[in-house]
Design goal:
Layout lengths: L1 H6 L22 H4 L4 E5 L8 H13 L10 E5 L5 H10 L6 E5 L12 E3 L9 H8 L3 E5 L5 H4 L6 E4 L9 H17 L3 H8 L4 H12 L1
Helix pairs in contact: 3-7, 5-8
């Protein structure tokens, strides 16, 4: 809202209303039921989602196997799209078939809470409905420090990790190493899911409904 107001010369009044909402918060019992190393992403399998970078970054993160709590990193990728064959080939190339899985289409409502962390390699996002659903189930988020999406939901170091990125050099090795760093940092340092639920509460239906009512008055 601040950016839009600045770009358009300023407004006397700016309303903010999320583009989606949560019916309820899901999950709980985080420390007892979830494995810290279980990551997922939900995405179209398309080039702009940078899933090739995500696969490479996860393979790099997985090379250092001794995590602080003994967890082993795994990544499940939900969704379908035109890049599936290329991504299957890349997973095989990195010998990652034992810890990276293309899961296809699934109804995600009750699946998020089986994971600890949502990871994204996208350089640009809109609101990020899947990110909202993830925090609504108590997941931490790891992703690049870019406008919108990740930065809407991440309080860095508390509800997730924002990774430095060079958006002008997509194939930069630094982008891969930075996301790998964020993945491992999330496992070793993030441990209080209540912070995530505090963020998620902002997107519960009653609060979002109130925001829209204020806008439409």
């Amino acid at each position: 809202a601040d950016l839009l107001s600045k770009q358009l010369g300023g407004f006397k009044r700016v309303y903010v209303a999320p583009a989606g909402y949560l019916e309820e918060l899901k999950g709980g019992g985080f420390e007892d039921t979830r494995t810290k190393g279980k990551f997922l992403t939900v995405s179209r399998l398309s080039d702009e989602k940078n899933l090739d970078i995500l696969i490479k970054s996860f393979a790099v993160a997985r090379q250092e196997k001794d995590l602080a709590d003994g967890s082993r990193l795994t990544l499940d990728i939900y969704g379908e799209g035109v890049e599936r064959v290329n991504l299957e080939r890349l997973i095989k190339q990195y010998d990652a078939e034992s810890f990276i899985t293309l899961k296809g289409h699934h109804k995600m409502d009750d699946l998020y809470q089986e994971y600890s962390t949502y990871v994204s390699a996208s350089f640009a996002e809109g609101f990020g409905l899947s990110l909202m659903e993830a925090v609504g189930s108590g997941l931490f988020i790891v992703g690049y420090d870019v406008d919108y999406g990740n930065t809407n939901f991440v309080v860095d170091g508390r509800t997730g990790i924002l990774c430095p990125v060079d958006v002008d050099d997509r194939k930069s090795d630094k982008n891969i190493s930075m996301l790998a760093w964020g993945i491992r940092k999330a496992v070793s340092e993030l441990d209080n899911y209540e912070f995530v639920y505090d963020v998620a509460k902002q997107y519960l239906k009653p609060r979002v409904s109130k925001a829209w009512k204020e806008l439409l008055k």
